[in-house]
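Open question from group meeting: does this chain pack into something compact, or does most of it stay loose? Before anyone orders reagents, we agreed to write out a predicted structure and look at it together. Recording both the input and the output here so the notebook holds the full record.
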Amino acid sequence: MKNLLLFSLVLICFLPNTAKSQSLSESYDFAIGVKMYPGAITLKKSIGDDKYLEGIAAFWKRGVRTTILYEVNAPLLDVDGLNWYYGGGAHAGFYNSKYYEGTTLLGIDGVLGIDYKIKGAPINLSIDWQPSFEFGNGSGFEGWGGLGVRIAF
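Structure tokens returned:
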């Protein structure tokens, strides 16, 4: 499943895109919702010129991980509201004593995904892959990402 997701996202990067000079036609200023894998709360805020900041707070048995991402969006396939995005950022993981002996680990993140804002409805859907590298004892490369469902304003 992870390989299929990665292949799909890489393929999309090479699709022709004739609408690069246009701004996003079905955009939003702010969106809040959930992201699945792992379970997370996500907030996405426009900072102008088809650029967004996304904050993610993921919760699972190991602890909590907070991430901030800078994302650049571009139209995809001339479909109103359909965009692809890429970017990067950083995270901090706060792990419980069963994992990494209660430590806080820092890391860097990338992101590559597809975003769709349903026309005429306050619903935003996304799917992405978020590779990251965490620094510290017992850490390293991880692949995150998943399906996001948000209410857009």
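Observations to bring back to the group:
The chain has one helix and eight strands.
The chain has a mean pLDDT of 82.
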